[in-house]
Request: fold
Amino acid sequence: MGKQTQIIKLDATDSTNRYLKDRLHSGPLADHTVVWAENQRLGRGQMGTIWQSEPGKNLTFSMLKYFEHLEADRHFLLNMGVSLALCEALGQFSIPNVKIKWPNDIMSGNQKICGILIENALQGSRLRHSIIGIGLNVNQEGFGALDRAGSLKSITGREFDLEHLLGALLGALCSQLGVLERRRMAELMPAYDALLFRKDLPSPFKRTNGTNFMGIVRGVGEHGKLLLEEEGGPVREVDLKEVRLLY
Reply:
């Protein structure tokens, strides 16, 4: 996990991101401080969705990362770095067909196994710090009505040691984030694009007005928007509020 990683382990909390923010308001914390909860009661995903986790079965944690020279308009570089680090770490455990579902989910095949929620604090035009929340389904086997959710155990049939797995994830995150400010989007883009879920495959999408259409994911633009080719139309940039991939 690295000598610089301080881990605060909790039995339970509503949200590890919120706990870390509250602790930060109370006084300074070291770079790479991690809050790990055995039971996260109100984990949030993108667009305010709730992330359900069975106590003691999964990894729910948040990491604090300070920046000195990362401009706010390059914030998607952080999303890319975090996603690539998680895919790299999961590869060490032979998790099959790991992909990145834009913008912040990690998939194994057609099953969502991990969600990412990054909250940034700005100082002028730069990111002062980020709180990176990770929810990884590990040993949980039932997900109720969430038929697209899966876990490392449900996919591989193996039980995973949470502490060992956390160490691998933190190692990959610290390594990737340690050099992030010196990287350019163009440097990470080939690796990120290669792992994009449903890339170059005709897929159904839903617009915010409720209409469905077929489109093809072609990549991600320099500001983190999805490059989407609609059937019979040009490639254009869309954001999370405009469309949703139905898979």
Q: What stands out?
A: The chain has a mean pLDDT of 91. Residues 162-178 form the longest helix (17 residues). The helical segments are 16-26, 76-91, 152-156, 162-178, 185-194. The chain has five helices and 14 strands.
